[in-house]
Amino acid sequence: MDLITAFGGSFLTQLQSPTLAFLIGGMALAATGSKLTIPDAIYRFIVFVLLMSIGLEGGMEIREANLAALALPAAFAIIVGCLCVLIGAFTLARLPGIERDDALATSGLFGAVSASTLAAAMIVLDQEQMPFEAWTPALYPFMDIPALVLAIVLASLHAHKASGDGAGEGVSVVGIVVDSLRGSALSALLLGLAIGLVARPEQVVEEFYDPLFRGLLSILMLIMGMEAWSRLAALRKVAHWYMLYAFVAPLAHGGIGFAFGWIAHQTVGLSPGGVVILAVIAASNSDISGPPTLRAGIPGANPSSYIGASTSIGTPVAIALCIPLFTALAGFVFET
User: Fold this and answer.
1) CATH topology of domain 35-214+230-330
2) Has residue 175 got a pLDDT over 50?
3) DSSP string, 236-305
4) N or C, fewer C-beta in 10 Å, the chain?
5) Among the listed residues 140, 165, 123, the one whose alpha carbon sits nearest the alpha carbon of residue 51
6) Where are the domains of the chain?
7) In the predicted model, is pLDDT for residue 108 greater than 60?
């Protein structure tokens, strides 16, 4: 009962937060037929600044962090990302009317990580005064890359098997990893991590990135809201199974992430806020690096299925339900 009360309070707080308000506002604008558009160049700039900020903060913290404490959560992030894809491969891919390529692309997207959801969770934890290790956002690529790579490899293996070319022949795992690392989102994040590790960017972070972070995030949420509503109609045309999966998967994946985070808390002292971050990135679904990577890696998949499921249902569920749920759960589980 205490958990339900805590979740209800956190959810109501989320409804009043600028993050969710801008997301809902974007959906409302699209639903009413608003002609408001935000140029793609601005969207890409916002994403770059947010990921650079997260990367710089993470790199600076990793520089001072206990690497032994970081190693286990990073390993868990890899495991969780792969588990999310495998769950989709053995559930969604087996449902009637679902093409295997579409299911694997969707599983890969839901196993990968959303930078906007990660940023929103960091804001909420700050508001809730629940501290977390600054290096926990650096878990992003440890979950994101393996999930995308595994989905593409499984799709490639299936394609070769179906065509009779021999399972695995011609599948370049190294090439897939390199392409993922070259993606704009991961490039920005990894660059920020590298600069934070080897340089002293504290002043530029304090004077440029930190003041812009919340304002740019609100614009990104507005864009995500408009995109979510516009994709909903396309999703209805594909299959209702995707709607069910897009609603359940963030909750299930987040629960798996929370469980692994709890283990990390017991073994290496990961903070409650760090557990929430791990749960939220597991619950999130990639909105930046994933779509172009999967479009190139699984060209036979229908973008309306995986992008529609992600933007119209998955992202709102991750932000509006999973963030307050796992924040409340952490308060309940780790209450002293």
Assistant:
1) Na+/H+ antiporter like fold (1.20.1530)
2) yes
3) HHH-HHHHHHHHHHHHHHHHHHHHHHHHHHHHH---HHHHHHHHHHHH---SSSHHHHHHHH-TTS-HHH
4) C
5) 140
6) 35-214+230-330
7) yes
